[in-house]
Design brief:
233 residues; 4-stranded antiparallel sheet; rod-shaped; alpha+beta; Alpha-Beta Plaits; single chain; 2 domains; 19% strand; 5 helices
């Protein structure tokens, strides 16, 4: 009897062990493998999310940098003539330097550099035009003379064809040479691109120097060219 009981217990134990093994192998093992696979998927997804976040951060940085670059370029070369901004700058320079702008004349080209009328600074046309302007100013007011608009002396081929430009001439009065030089320096400091084309300064004559209380005002005609670009940058 004892032997039969022991055999029955061993058989029962073996059966239970086989059943537990079968449960583990057929039920638990697939679930564990599924859990492991899910964990790998989660880790891969987390890594992908981190990579995407880094890309988004990089793109935001690039866009901000690009936006700042475009803004800086637009300050140098605006999309419109923005003549009111030029006039405002001139008024501010007058206040800073103690000079006086007695007259301003603009030449609105409204056309591309490629189509604009320009004078070659290396040709004789520039000096001839200046001479013609002087002669016209000395003629009688009764004579009908066409006014000569300020025309830039920049070589057309040296500029992008898509640019548009505005040239303007100013009659400036200053108390001395220092004030006049400060005026010119402030023009060049303007954030918008400004190119001084020509400068014609009239100094006090020697005869005026020997006259007591003579007017020592310095006058100059300054011609400047600025640019604008209507397209996208």
């Amino acid at each position: 009897m004892t032997s039969s009981k022991n055999s029955a217990i061993l058989l029962l134990t073996a059966f239970v062990a086989a059943l537990l093994f079968a449960l583990y192998y057929y039920l638990l093992t697939p679930k564990l493998e599924e859990v492991e696979a899910k964990e790998k998927d989660v880790n891969a997804l987390q890594q992908e999310i981190v990579a995407i976040q880094e890309q988004i951060t990089t793109m935001d940085t690039v866009q901000q940098s690009h936006g700042a670059s475009v803004l800086a370029l637009r300050k140098k070369v605006p999309q419109t003539r923005a003549i009111e901004g030029v006039i405002r700058n001139i008024e501010e320079i007058e206040a800073v330097t103690g000079t006086r702008v007695e007259a301003v004349e603009f030449n609105h080209y409204d056309s591309l550099v490629l189509d604009s009328t320009m004078m070659d600074p290396n040709s004789q046309d520039v000096s001839e035009t200046v001479q013609q302007t002087t002669e016209n100013s000395n003629q009688s007011e009764e004579a009908e003379v066409d006014s000569v608009l300020p025309t830039t002396t920049i070589v057309k081929e040296s500029l992008p064809a898509e640019l548009k430009l505005v040239t303007f001439s100013m009659d400036v009065a200053a108390i001395d040479t220092k004030a006049m030089l400060e005026f010119l320096k402030e023009i060049e400091k303007i954030e918008r691109v400004m190119k001084i084309d020509t400068l014609d300064i009239t100094l006090t004559g020697e005869e005026d120097n020997i006259v007591e209380d003579a007017d020592s005002t310095i006058t100059a005609t300054v011609q400047v060219t600025t640019f604008y670009y209507e397209g996208e940058q």
